[in-house]
Design brief:
21 helices; single chain; mainly alpha; elongated; 0% strand; 434 residues
Length: 434
């Protein structure tokens, strides 16, 4: 054995171990703590305190044999200390201490004498714990921004700094959102539990919406110097897979997972070696992730097989499937894409859907009809300030040979675009029209 192996554990090794355990198991840890304490905010706080203690202890002693059990036991002690400080809650503390002592064996904080190989939590409850955690983090009392931040924190296990980097906002802003979210949940007395079946469907929309925002920002960054933020997008994919495993009978959950998988499959071809964006027609489709495409098509198949018709996420996944299975832009089934966008416009109308339908119409029927649709959008003012509208209009004008107007639209789109990589593509297109 080398001297390096014989030496004391390093702080860096401890940090990597803590991060790995937390990223993989944070949802189950916080979910179990929330169920045991009955206090979502306390569960998240003591979980973070246990992480901080692990960094110190594991640096000195090395990672324990059961890292999850260690974190749960440490967080349990912190929770008991918190209740001890609330002198008016002595009775609740006694009940909690007894409940947690009984639950230590299933929670992994201690080994039962006759059952040393127990799982670190009750296998009959873990699904409900994680699902309850998702529904709590995305409760309707929270703002959309708070839902996203809290979901990434307590379900995804990301730090405030990681969330801040992902959305290009200061870390104190993210921390303030998370703190306010926890206070709002406490003030509203939101119970840590699965909502009743009659409310679950309505509340699920908030969970899906938060995941969609996370994935969308990762797949096309709103601002900054990178077109993609793969780490953020893949975190949304991981959470979507978890949600699909917990809610196997919901078609929209599978539809969203299919959309994420099929869209992420194109990531390897969407940027060049220098990080510049590569347009769909120029992408090397051999670089697309075929495993992700297979997973996406399988998820879309499950969504369809449930027999309730595709919802907004499922319809978007069906559109993504048309691209993923085509050999080229020319061989893409644009007529089907037009029909899918028409269906999407009926169930989830928005100006962006209309704009995308115009692009599909241009590919299926020619630019003139599409330009009329885009001009109607311009007149409505519903996408005012967005770079998407002038960029599409510029493309259509280029195809119609109206290069002077097209260049002006591309330059306008570049001025409105906040992403440096996307902006450079637009400027390159404008320059090519000189």
């Amino acid at each position: 054995m080398s001297a390096a192996t014989d030496g004391p554990p390093s702080a860096e090794a401890a940090r990597r171990a803590v991060e790995a355990v937390w990223r993989i198991e944070s949802a189950r840890i916080v979910g179990a703590l929330a169920r045991y304490t009955g206090d979502f905010t306390l569960a998240e706080d003591v979980g973070q305190e246990a992480l901080a203690e692990a960094l110190v202890t594991w640096s000195r002693d090395g990672a324990p044999a059961s890292p999850v059990g260690w974190l749960l036991a440490t967080a349990r002690r912190r929770a008991i200390d918190a209740f001890r400080r609330r002198s008016a809650l002595d009775e609740r503390y006694a009940m909690l201490a007894g409940q947690l002592a009984d639950g230590e064996f299933s929670a992994g904080a201690a080994a039962a004498p006759d059952r040393p190989d127990d799982l670190p939590w009750d296998p009959d409850r873990v699904d409900d714990d994680v699902l309850a955690l998702m529904f709590t983090a995305c409760h309707p009392v929270l703002s959309p921004e708070a839902r996203v931040a809290l979901t990434l924190r307590v379900v995804g296990g990301l730090s405030s700094e990681e969330i801040a980097r992902a959305f290009l906002v200061p870390a104190p802003t993210v921390q303030a959102r998370i703190t306010r979210a926890k206070k709002t949940i406490a003030a509203a007395r939101v119970p840590f539990e699965l909502p009743p079946p009659e409310e679950r469907r309505e509340r699920l929309g908030g969970v899906l919406s938060a995941l969609y925002v996370i994935f969308t920002e990762g797949s096309t960054a709103t601002t900054g110097d990178h077109l993609l933020r793969p780490d953020l997008a893949y975190e949304a994919v991981r959470l979507a897979r978890m949600l699909a495993a917990l809610l196997p009978a919901d078609p929209e959950v599978h539809g969203q997972l299919a959309l994420f998988e099929l869209t992420a499959a194109r990531f390897p071809a969407r940027t060049g070696p220098d990080g510049e964006g590569v347009l769909l027609e120029d992408q090397d489709r051999r670089l697309w992730d075929r495993s992700a495409i297979r997973r996406g098509l399988a998820a879309l198949g499950r969504a369809s097989a449930l027999g309730r018709g595709l919802g907004p996420y499922g319809l978007q996944a069906a559109i993504a499937a048309c691209h993923a299975t085509a050999l080229s832009v020319r061989e893409t089934d644009w007529e089907r894409i037009v029909l899918l966008y028409e269906a999407l416009g009926r169930v989830a109308p928005s100006p962006v859907v209309e704009l995308n339908r115009a692009v599909a119409v241009a590919m299926a029927s020619g630019p003139q009809e599409a330009l009329s649709m885009v001009d109607d959008l311009v007149a409505s003012g519903r996408l005012s300030g967005s770079h998407l509208l002038p960029s599409v209009r510029g493309e259509l004008l280029t195809r119609l040979g109206r290069t002077t107007e097209a260049r002006a639209e591309m330059e306008l789109a570049a001025r409105l675009c906040r992403n440096a990589r996307e902006r450079s593509v637009l400027l390159r297109k404008a320059a090519a029209l000189d």
